[in-house]
């Protein structure tokens, strides 16, 4: 499969932080993603009180939406600004604490306790720190991960999933020779080889 010029493209952590600082966040959806509403039943599968993971969560409004339904939400995001904007925009009080296992990391947790957002690199997380999840909403994570890191990302995600967990993944389809990404083009064949 030809992913064109994207194969070797690397977006640094600094570049992501800059996008947040400049407000260059066209990937953020103010109203939440219509596909989550459409496929919510697939994610929940008739279950309630799930632990749901939002990789590279940004300030996704769906985190509050799912928490309000009684689920416990955990997100990870490298931009502290994004996380603080989430709590401010959702009018949610929160407290902040260090994450002892990860140097320099912080956990911002809603005072109600049902939303915990980790400010660090996703690759610093492990199930021993965040536990395992019943569901994953991957709306902009796999397509934002540098192509050279996809295997590492998928392997991590698999270790964070409970046996019966549901993984909802949104990708984008386009000619990778015409756009350098992110979002990156991830062909279906690659998704199958990453996740089985």
TrEMBL record:
Question: What InterPro entries does the database record attribute to this sequence?
Answer: SAM-dependent_MTases_sf, Thiopurine_S-MeTrfase, TPMT
Q: Which UniProt keywords apply?
A: Cytoplasm, Methyltransferase, S-adenosyl-L-methionine, Transferase
GO CC terms in record? cytoplasm
Q: What is its EC number?
A: 2.1.1.67
Molecular function terms, GO-annotated: thiopurine S-methyltransferase activity
* Compartment(s) where it occurs, according to its Swiss-Prot or TrEMBL record: Cytoplasm
One matching Pfam family: TPMT
Q: Where does S-adenosyl-L-methionine bind?
A: 16-27, 56, 77, 121-122, 139
Q: According to its UniProt record, which reaction does this protein catalyse?
A: S-adenosyl-L-methionine + a thiopurine = S-adenosyl-L-homocysteine + a thiopurine S-methylether
UniProt xrefs under PROSITE patterns: SAM_MT_TPMT (PS51585)
Biological processes, Gene Ontology terms? methylation
Question: Taking the first listed entry, what is the main subcellular location of this protein, grouped into a coarse class?
Answer: cytoplasm
Which family does the UniProt entry place this protein in?
A: Belongs to the class I-like SAM-binding methyltransferase superfamily. TPMT family.
Question: Would you tell me the protein name for this molecule?
Answer: thiopurine S-methyltransferase
- The species is Mesembrinibis cayennensis
């Amino acid at each position: 499969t030809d992913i064109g010029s994207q194969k070797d493209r690397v977006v640094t952590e600094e570049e992501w932080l800059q996008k947040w600082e400049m407000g260059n966040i066209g990937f953020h959806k103010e109203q939440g993603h219509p596909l989550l509403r459409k496929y919510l039943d697939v994610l929940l599968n008739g279950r309630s009180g799930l632990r749901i993971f939002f990789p590279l969560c940004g300030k996704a409004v769906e985190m509050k939406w799912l928490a309000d339904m009684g689920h416990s939400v955990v997100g990870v995001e490298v931009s502290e600004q994004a996380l603080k904007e989430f709590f401010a925009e959702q009018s949610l009080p929160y407290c902040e604490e260090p994450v002892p296992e990860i140097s320099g990391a912080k956990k911002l947790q809603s005072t109600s306790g049902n939303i915990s957002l980790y400010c660090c690199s996703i690759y610093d997380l492990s199930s021993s720190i965040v536990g395992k999840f019943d569901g994953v909403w991957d709306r902009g994570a796999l397509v934002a991960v540098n192509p050279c890191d996809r295997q590492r990302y998928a392997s991590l995600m698999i270790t964070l999933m409970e046996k019966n967990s549901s993984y909802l993944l949104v990708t984008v389809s386009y000619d990778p020779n015409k756009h350098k990404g992110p979002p990156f083009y991830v062909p279906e064949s690659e998704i199958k080889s990453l996740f089985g």
